[in-house]
Amino acid sequence: xxxxxxxxxxxxxxxxxxxxxxxxxxxxxxxxxxxxxxxxxxxxxxxxxxxxxxxxxxxxxxxxxxxxxxxxxxxxxxxxxxxxxxxxxxxxxxxxxxxxxxxxxxxxxxxxxxxxxxxxxxxxxxxxxxxxxxxxxxxxxxxxxxxxxxxxxxxxxxxxxxxxxxxxxxxxxxxxxxxxxxxxxxxxxxxxxxxxxxxxxxxxxxxxxxxxxxxxxxxxxxxxxxxxxxxxxxxxxxxxxxxxxxxxxxxxxxxxxxxxxxxxxxxxxxxxxxxxxxxxxxxxxxxxxxxxxxxxxxxxxxxxxxxxxxxxxxxxxxxxxxxxxxxxxxxxxxxxxxxxxxxxxxxxxxxxxxxxxxxxxxxxxxxxx
Length: 369
Fold this sequence. Notes:
CATH class of the largest domain: Alpha Beta
Largest sheet: 6 strands, mixed
Order of helices and strands: HEEEEHEEHEEEEEEEHEEEHEEEHEHEHH
CATH architecture of the largest domain: 3-Layer(aba) Sandwich
Number of helices: 9
């Protein structure tokens, strides 16, 4: 899996006001007393000594000047204030965020757990974790959630690029894309077999090609134009695959997972690492919307374990001119799951889940427009 991972990677604004009431920071008998931030009294609470040290690394807190955001409409006025900076990363109080996004919240200060709801959507957050639970899916964050003075802290990046798209998509200022043409990218091919299950004589390159062909037929039936990056067992350079998406509205790369632990199982979907300056990240809100739509539909039809929406720096996603996701359909290294992936009857469930998720994504775009 490590080799496969390496093959797919090259390497691995808004006006805001600060309100900070300083108190002493000192260590006495192993007790750390932290600044009172957000105007609330109480002691800092982190899960480990390593996290306790984080509070000592707070950089100089200052009022930021105006920063334009291409994500948030400036008229909306939804940027919470104040924020706190830890080692150069800006964080917002969850209590301020829920007011800004008009959510309901249940907060357990004793263990740094919170549940926020808006409409029919539910988000669970736990301090110290690097993901949130949105409905039943883990959505991985760029920065770990922190807990300070009775407040869960969410990084400003994750607020803009995760919570706003999931809970307040109407606030996204960027032009909403349409969904008419889809590029399907069967991973690997030719001299690159991808992952292999030698016990069952299955190769990733052939199974994903089979499913890409079936998915193309299903999507065409549902009224979409579909382009394949390869239609035979041929090798296509990673850098050449995104060029097929020149006139497309969505790019979906299909792969099978593999692990040294043969019991590993389930589906996971990747978007680009959101903090990196790749052209594919121009579509961050839509990447996340597509990933979640496909993941939830796939889980429903296949009953595969849901491993969440994750981030990586896959070459095929970096330079995309449209929204894009990479789907790890299941583990070829798990014999039971591999047999399902190769079974014609079960493949129909897989195709239905993928197609349903893509259609759902398109419907969500229409609602936004």
